[in-house]
Amino acid sequence: MSSQTLGKNTSGIEVSHISPHGIWLLAGDKEYFMPYEDFPWFKNAVIEAVLKVEEPSPGHFYWPELDVDLTPDIIEHPERFPLKAKDA
């Protein structure tokens, strides 16, 4: 007998908190903190644009209004990805 997952994963992805230090992204059952120091695109962005995040494929997070693409690896280890766009 095998178990099959029924239905669609409803956990989704969302920005769960915005603070003066960075933003928190909730993806499935994991929460990521993105400090502005490492992710400057979000610091002066309009809140509506920060909140509008999509997951076009598993583990690919995209903010269409900011044209920002991130993965869990980039978020967890920003030191491995030193190239950053300048804060607008």
SSE layout:
Layout: E1 13-18, E2 22-27, E3 30-35, H1 47-51, E4 54-57, E5 60-63, E6 68-70, H2 72-76
Antiparallel strand pairs: 1-2, 2-3, 4-5, 5-6
Short structural summary:
The chain has 88 residues and is mainly beta. The chain has a single domain, classed as NE0471 N-terminal domain-like (2-Layer Sandwich), CATH 3.30.2020. The protein has helices at residues 47-51, 72-76, and strands spanning 13-18, 22-27, 30-35, 54-57, 60-63, 68-70.
Structural class: mainly beta
Q: What fraction of residues sit in β-strands? A: 25-35%
Secondary structure tally: strands: 6
Please tally the helical runs, counting DSSP H or I stretches of 4 or more residues: 2
Biggest sheet features: 3 strands, antiparallel
Mean pLDDT: 87
CATH topology: NE0471 N-terminal domain-like
CATH level-1 class: Alpha Beta
Low-confidence stretches: 1-10
Rg, Å, rounded: 14 Å
Tally of discrete structural domains: 1
First-last Cα distance: 56 Å
CATH architecture: 2-Layer Sandwich
Write out the strand line-up for the largest beta sheet, numbering strands in chain order. Answer: 1-2-3
The 3D shape can be described as globular
What percent of the residues sit in helical stretches (DSSP H or I)? Answer: 10-25%
